[in-house]
Structure formats: C-alpha cells, structure tokens
C-alpha cells in the first residue's frame, strides 16, 4: 500500500499556523501583511520635530507581530524607551493595485483599533544614521490589535475620537478627521507601490501624545464607532 503523506514529506519543519484576528460578528481574519503609515497627523509630526508639509510614507511589520484578545505584550529587548502609538487599522478584503481614490473603500473589509509599538531609542539612532527603522518597528509582539468590525455594519469612519489610556490616565487624544491622508487616499497611494491583497492590514498613523511605557503598564485604546484594544506590558 502507498505510504500516507504528511507535513514532513513536503516541509523541513511544520509551517506556522496563520495569524488571525477575531471578527466582531464571528469568524477570523487571516493576516497577510501589515503596512504602516508614517506621519499622518499634523500634531504628531510637530511633536516629533518633523516637517508637516512632507507627505506620509510607508513601512511594514510582520504578520506575526500581531497580538490579539487582550493578551499581554512582552517588553522587547534592546530598548529602554518603548512608546505607544494608537491607530485606526484598515483590514483589506479585496485585491487591487493602482486603485483609484473613489474606488478605494470598496477594497476595505473592516476596521479595528491597533497599537504601533515603537522602540523609540532605536528609531532615533536609525534616523541619525540614515538607516532603516525595521528593528524599531517590526519586532515581536509590536502590533496589538482589537477585533475587526466589518464595514458593512459600521460604515467607513472618517471622524471620531481616537484615544489611548495608560493605567487609566489619558495619554493620546485626536480625531480621525485630523488625518492628513484619509483612508481612501492612503489605500490609493499605497497601491501604487504594492498590490494590496485580501488579508492585508494598514495602520494609518497616530495622533500626538506618544510616550514611554514600562512593565506592568495597562494600555487601553479606543476609537469612536470602531472598538477598542487592550494589552498589558509584561
């Protein structure tokens, strides 16, 4: 009789399970890639000492940086200055490239609240040396994300408070309406550089108020009409 096949017949080692984010009304959203928008709120640009006239730009995090379900986030190594950045997360549900602005929202499955955690000291050193930010942004557990709300139920939020509390004290507050590039414009611009595919996430930038956190801190983020995200630094 022929020998039955197994994972070991095809792969050197067992592949990792897909990274998935719970959908608020049931099911799981399998994550393919995470794209992040830099400098998309004028006040945050000013607090970081940058020119608000410069357009936003893009960087990435790996899919397995996602932390879900309120799970704790380990304090990362090689930093003494870990910062929070609360962000609207766009979940892409339809493939596309060179997407027109007026068609961009058709590619959105839903929205969530996320944290772009940043090793700020490593980022500052990278900026000074003209080097990539990857080790400052794309480290393990650097993207806590709340559950995804489908756009068919909540629409496409263009305004609404975006806030972050640490141990109950408000650190960040802004409004989605303060974004320099809105969601449709961001999708259209990003799709000029890469083909967006179902399963991609876009973290759309953070308002002012970013600051350091340490072990034991409880982070609670919220976006009006979208949802919440929560994690504890351990």
TrEMBL record:
<dbReference type="GO" id="GO:0018773">
    <property type="term" value="F:acetylpyruvate hydrolase activity"/>
</dbReference>
<dbReference type="InterPro" id="IPR036663">
    <property type="entry name" value="Fumarylacetoacetase_C_sf"/>
</dbReference>
<keyword id="KW-0378">Hydrolase</keyword>
<dbReference type="InterPro" id="IPR011234">
    <property type="entry name" value="Fumarylacetoacetase-like_C"/>
</dbReference>
<dbReference type="GO" id="GO:0046872">
    <property type="term" value="F:metal ion binding"/>
</dbReference>
<feature type="domain" description="Fumarylacetoacetase-like C-terminal">
    <location>
        <begin position="34"/>
        <end position="234"/>
    </location>
</feature>
<protein>
    <submittedName>
        <fullName>Fumarylacetoacetate hydrolase family protein</fullName>
    </submittedName>
</protein>
<dbReference type="Pfam" id="PF01557">
    <property type="entry name" value="FAA_hydrolase"/>
</dbReference>
<keyword id="KW-0479">Metal-binding</keyword>
């Amino acid at each position: 009789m022929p020998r039955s096949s197994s994972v070991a017949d095809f792969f050197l080692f067992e592949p990792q399970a897909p990274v998935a984010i719970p959908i608020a009304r049931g099911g799981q959203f399998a994550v393919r890639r995470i794209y992040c928008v830099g400098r998309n709120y004028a006040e945050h640009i000013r607090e970081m000492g940058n020119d608000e006239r410069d357009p936003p730009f893009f960087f990435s995090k790996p899919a397995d940086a996602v932390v879900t379900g309120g799970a704790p986030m380990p304090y990362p190594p090689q930093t003494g200055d870990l910062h929070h950045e609360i962000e609207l997360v766009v979940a892409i549900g339809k493939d596309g490239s060179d997407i027109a602005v007026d068609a961009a929202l058709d590619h959105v499955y839903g929205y969530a609240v996320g944290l772009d955690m940043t090793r700020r000291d490593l980022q500052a050193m990278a900026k000074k040396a003209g080097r990539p930010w990857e080790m400052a942004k794309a480290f393990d557990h650097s993207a806590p994300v709340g559950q995804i709300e489908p756009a068919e139920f909540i629409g496409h939020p263009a305004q609404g408070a975006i806030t972050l509390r640490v141990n109950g004290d408000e650190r960040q507050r802004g409004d989605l309406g303060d974004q320099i590039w809105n969601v449709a414009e961001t999708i259209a611009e990003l799709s000029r550089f890469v083909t967006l595919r179902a399963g991609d996430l876009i973290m759309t930038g953070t308002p002012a108020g970013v600051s350091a956190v340490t072990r034991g801190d409880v982070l609670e983020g919220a976006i009006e009409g979208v949802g919440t995200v929560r994690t504890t630094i351990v």
